[in-house]
Amino acid sequence: MRNRQQLAGRARGYTLVEMMVVVGLMGFMTVGILSFTFQAMRIYNYDSGRLMVNRDMRTFTAGLANDAVASNYFRIYPSFQTRTAFVTDGLSGDFLVLAFTDTNKTTGAFIITEIIGYYRDADPTNPTSLGPVRRFDTGPPGSAHAISTSDQTKDLATLVGLYAPTSTSSSNPVVIQLAQGLADGSLFYDYRDKSVMVRGQIVDYGNGLNVATNKTRAAINTYNFTVSPRG
């Protein structure tokens, strides 16, 4: 009778070894589940970044092509901060200015009625760093930010100084979230003073992740296209 009671008592409990085995199995299962979850999040963020890259590329190419075709000529400057002198054939920069011109109907003078700029807002001391691409527009005649009638006869460099946002401004609309140039570390390349070759990479980590701290693989796509003002 006593032996039966002892056996029944033993059947109702677990030994320390059994408990350790169960805890170990649960630990392995938890690690596996967490690993799977992290991997799924990395894949999700990468796919999200790839969609954003494709979206940015379509928006950028379509917008720049439309602006360039409607403009009369262009100038490329080394950067948004360095805009005292433009680059010439075979050189590149990070600041593209498109000029829209007309003729004054009264005086017959050549005038600039509007300027549109695209620039890469990156660290000027590090040409290969990532930065957003921004756009500004003075607007056509009659708009709120249009070039005044008294200024329209001035040269483009002067108008850039007067109407382009300050070199420290980051308030202009973002066209691409993150980009880096490929042509000598810059985004825009002057091809024979007739066309603008855009050479760069769009980078996105997806899901609004912080570039400096996240460990997610970046989605990267290289773009290379050419636009030409109508002249």
Summarize the entry for a quick read.
This protein has helices spanning 2-11, 16-70, 156-163; strands spanning 73-77, 92-93, 95-103, 110-120, 131-137, 174-181, 188-191, 195-204, 219-227. By secondary structure, the chain is α+β, with helices and mostly antiparallel strands.
Note the main sheet: 9 strands, antiparallel
Number of helices: 3
Beta strand %: 25-35%
The helix/strand series, from N terminus to C terminus, equals HHEEEEEHEEEE
Structural class: alpha+beta
Instruction: Label the overall shape.
Output: elongated
- Which range best describes the helical content: under 10%, 10-25%, 25-40%, 40-55%, 55-70% or over 70%? 25-40%
**Distance separating the two termini:** 109 Å
Radius of gyration: 30 Å
Could you report the average pLDDT, rounded to the nearest whole number? Answer: 84
Q: Number of domains in the coordinates?
A: 1
According to DSSP, the number of beta strands is 9
Unreliable parts: none
